[in-house]
């Protein structure tokens, strides 16, 4: 019987000992912007309005005391509450928008911006949960858009008020509120219950700039976003890693070779 050649053993062992690592997913949570050095968040309208009933910023139940009441669904504890999105059990951070056209901002849109380091990332995807409640007008709107490496902006999501229908909004106390002219995104009616949306970002580069622009003229028209995430696949080169069964297989091969030679 012919002995095993060392070259053959080396080839088999090389296969057994190494394997490529799978590409890793990178997630940037944009409502906790200071948790990562890769994210720079700016919002000149944070705490910029003199009325507590107006707002355009990141909020969180049980954390901040300056949340406009219209954004909160407190119907379980206050039967007079007939408007709201964020229920009493929802303690996640959210971006809330209400009555941005006010004494402190009479004309212009409101704008928040995230700059995200996406170097070595590909296959970018934008994830977001959206909700809205109110009798909206055509002037009430929001826009999510992005730019990579200072190139022209591309729209991701844009709202449109549907003035030909109505929406039934269910509050936490299980009551239904019917209102005309709901807000839509991609022809989907928004409600006061968060709905998941996602969109691929086909461009690549080093710096992603994400913008939220909005204008809402009324204290009974509210919009909220939650679970806002940019996800990408890391392009960092990976090295081979030992497979779990490699050492045992290697020992077995050398045992077989030794038996044959002897």
Mean of residue pLDDT values? 86
The number of distinct β-strands equals: 15
What is the rounded Rg? 27 Å
Give the strand content.
Answer: 35-45%
Q: How far is it from the N-terminal to the C-terminal residue, by CA?
A: 11 Å
Helix percentage: 10-25%
Secondary structure category: mainly beta
The largest sheet has its strands arranged as: 2-5-14-7-8-11-12
Q: Please summarize the sheet with the most strands.
A: 7 strands, antiparallel
Secondary-structure element pattern, one letter each: HEEEEEEEEEEEEEEEH
The outline comes out as: globular
Q: What's the tally of helices?
A: 2
Which parts are unreliable, with pLDDT below 50 for 5 consecutive residues or more? Answer: 1-21, 243-262
Describe the structure.
The chain has 262 residues and is mostly beta strands. The protein has 2 helices and 15 strands. The strands form 3 sheets. It has a 7-stranded antiparallel sheet, with no helix packed on it. A hairpin with a 2-residue loop joins strand 11 (183-185) and strand 12 (188-189). The longest helix has 16 residues, at 246-261. It is globular, with a radius of gyration of 27 Å. It starts with 5 loop residues before the first helix and ends with a helix. The model is unreliable at 1-21 and 243-262 (pLDDT under 50).
Topology diagram in text:
Blueprint: H1 6-17, E1 25-29, E2 39-42, E3 55-59, E4 94-98, E5 110-117, E6 121-133, E7 141-148, E8 154-161, E9 166-170, E10 176-180, E11 183-185, E12 188-189, E13 195-201, E14 207-215, E15 222-234, H2 246-261
Antiparallel strand pairs: 1-15, 2-5, 3-4, 4-15, 5-14, 6-13, 6-15, 7-8, 7-14, 8-11, 9-10, 11-12
């Amino acid at each position: 019987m012919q002995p095993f050649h060392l070259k053959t053993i080396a080839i088999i062992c090389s296969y057994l000992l190494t394997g490529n690592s799978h590409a890793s997913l990178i997630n940037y949570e944009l409502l906790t912007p200071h948790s990562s050095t890769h994210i720079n968040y700016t919002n000149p309208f944070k705490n910029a309005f003199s009325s507590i009933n107006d707002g355009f910023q990141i909020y969180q139940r049980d954390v901040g005391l300056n949340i406009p009441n219209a954004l909160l669904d407190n119907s379980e504890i206050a039967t007079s509450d007939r408007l709201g999105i964020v229920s009493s059990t929802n303690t996640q951070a959210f971006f809330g928008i209400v009555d941005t056209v006010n004494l402190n901002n009479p004309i212009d849109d409101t704008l928040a911006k995230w700059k995200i380091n996406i170097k070595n990332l590909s296959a970018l995807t934008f994830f977001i949960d959206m909700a809205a409640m109110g009798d909206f007008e055509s002037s009430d709107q929001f826009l999510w858009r992005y730019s990579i490496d200072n190139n022209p902006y591309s729209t991701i999501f844009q709202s449109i008020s549907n003035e030909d229908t109505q929406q039934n909004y269910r509050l936490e106390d299980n009551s239904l509120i019917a209102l005309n002219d709901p807000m839509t995104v991609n022809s989907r009616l928004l409600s006061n219950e968060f709905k998941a949306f996602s969109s691929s970002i086909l461009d690549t580069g080093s710096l992603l700039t994400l913008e939220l622009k909005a204008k809402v003229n009324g204290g009974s028209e509210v919009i909220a976003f939650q679970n806002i995430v940019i996800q990408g696949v890391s392009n960092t080169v990976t090295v081979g890693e030992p497979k779990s069964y490699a050492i045992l297989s290697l020992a077995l091969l050398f045992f077989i070779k030794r038996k044959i030679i002897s």
